[in-house]
Amino acid sequence: MRLEHYIEELLYRYNCVIVPEFGAFLTQTKSAFLKEETHTFYPPTKQVSFNAQLVSNDGLLVSYMAEAEKTTYEEMLKRISALSKDWRNQLEKGERLIFTNIGKLWLNKEGKISFEPALKVNYLTTSFGLSSCVSAQITREVLKEQVVSLEEEIPFMITPEQREKKQMRPYLKYAAVVFLGLALGFTGFRFYTENKATNLVVQKEAQKQVAREIEQATFFDVSPLELPVLKLNASSTAKIQEEIATQYHIVAGAFKVKENADKKISQLQTKGFNAKYIGVNKFGFHVVSFDSFTDVDKALSYLRNIKNSESKDAWLYQE
After folding, report:
1. Coil, strand or helix at 291
2. What is the side-by-side strand order in the sheet with 103-107?
3. What is the pLDDT of residues 231-270, one digit of tens each?
4. What is the pLDDT of residues 171-190, one digit of tens each?
5. Domains of the chain
6. Which CB contacts under 8 angstroms, 24+ apart, belong to 279-287?
């Protein structure tokens, strides 16, 4: 008869299991906790202890074992009493009682029973299946205040910095200023190039219209004084300029799956934003914007409003 086996079964259901004439095994719920030095997480558990003062029979263990062993209550009480005396004799001889899933019992120098619980079994049923686990420390990327301020001024994306614990070195400030000057110079050169391209397109369109008018006047024998005055359509010219103008997109997010990008566009359009799909970037993500502008000042102003009201993670992308 393995008495400790029945004690284990009862510890799952009750907080106190008394072994008549020997002592009581008690359980107390212990909350989950984390050991920071080892990064180990422990789930909630029942911590087992032993009290040698509680020896009066409460009937729980005897009734449970009598039913399991198919015997009478009185017979089972005799068996447990005999086993309890045997356990006490072993302890008095200096031996240790080892219950694999409960703990160890022995007599200390003062002649009192000491108990060391076993940690292999968790008797808390709500934590069934949970075990301790170790998690590596998480290192997070933090953008420095200097980079954040530059992002609000420069109309292009700034990639996240590398992780480092040291503060930003002084020479990086000067490098940022030089970088800002180069960026502004590049933007001005591009603006000049695009305006030049626009003028060339308009001039070619004008030359084509002049050639058509002269050809028509020659065919119908119209005098030079009767040639019509050439007028370019302002709307067509504006359309040509708009097609080749630089686009500034206020990015709302980038998604690996196209369906998620479409869902984001629908959500933003429901809120009243002029959201649209920009395309796939070089990393293979589908980019969605709150709105797009051809004027960099309007784009930066809109970006600040979006950061304050809708999303702090929004950023400006120059196409």
Report:
1. strand
2. 97-99, 103-107, 113-117
3. 545 555 555 455 456 788 999 888 989 999 999 999 999 9
4. 666 676 666 677 666 666 66
5. 3-134 (no CATH), 186-245 (no CATH), 246-319 (3.30.70.1070)
6. 281/254, 283/254, 284/256, 285/254, 285/255, 285/256, 286/254, 286/255, 286/256, 286/257, 286/258, 286/260, 286/261, 287/249, 287/251, 287/253, 287/254, 287/261, 287/317
Q: What is the dihedral of CA 91, 95, 96, 100, to 10 degrees?
A: -110
Show the tokens assigned to 8.
Answer: 């284990």
Please choose, from the candidates 294, 293, 319, the residue with its C-alpha nearest in 3D space to the C-alpha of residue 306.
293
Q: What is the pLDDT of residues 95-111, one digit of tens each?
A: 999 998 899 999 999 88
pLDDT of residue 228: 46
DSSP code per residue over 47-109: EEEEETT--S--SHHHHHHHHHHT--HHHHHHHHHHHHHHHHHHHHTT--EEETTTEEEEE-T
